[in-house]
């Protein structure tokens, strides 16, 4: 138990601050749609999914001289299309549902929700940040498990507190253990789903009992079909109409142009049973003619793939409505508190031992003074 306690303390002292950052940014991102509705024009517009409106917007957006690479279409909670541009550029834009750009940026630092997502998902370090974040998620799971083990002997001292009763090490440690136990199920959910999205091997290992990695990769692969050159006057009404006819009742979620010569136009759709915001149902089209050449039904994918598709909506609270968003907000803020206070208590006292009180220096003993001899009385003469 002593070794486990030391491992928990020392690793938490070094990784706690990173977990606190991930927790805080995650708690903010849960409410991204509400923030956009309050700050960006047309973000509160009602979602429109009719073929004519979607086709008109796609025609207008892709006809621009500096056209985007893809469009993420408006949702029920956010009435804006998000435009992404090719290459490593940080350029992006929001457009209303008629296709008019209402806000654009050339740096991620311009939009708070964009750089917050970069911090949370990539740690501002691209692919390397993904790996570090995934490892931090696994470390967080380790903290939860070891924390539960360390808490068990002290379970009779459990107290429900949102904040330590005093900002002293014993009170903070007591609060840390009790809060960690209270939110442990939420932390396991958020840390596991976060790690699976960042670490493919971890995701495959968890889903292996349901579907083999090879089976899941094959089911997710794009069709090996060569497309023609993108037509200048492509009939988007025809393209989108075919996707909607192939999957009746499905919500059209993204429209992507070919990433390279010979590629295909890709449209993602979300069928009603799918939790993933943008769905995994796909339709592919020849850019030259607009004819559908392949499709994929997300409901027919292997079980392991369908479980994987639930990671993001569970992690980012894209299901369950306001109640679940508040639950995941609590999870993020609790992780922030646990991580930050762990760092404070560790670096304030890395050994974990109670500090010895300095003893006051003993006063020097007083020197003993011998009594002065009294003079003898002189004899009195008679």
TrEMBL record:
Transmembrane annotation, as ranges: 12-31, 131-152, 322-348
Record region (Disordered): 350-382
Pfam families to which the protein is assigned, alphabetical: PepSY_TM
The organism's place on the tree of life at top rank: Bacteria
Composition bias, Basic and acidic residues: 367-382
InterPro entries per the UniProt record, alphabetical: PepSY-ass_TM
Keywords in alphabetical order: Membrane, Transmembrane, Transmembrane helix
Protein's UniProt name: Peptidase
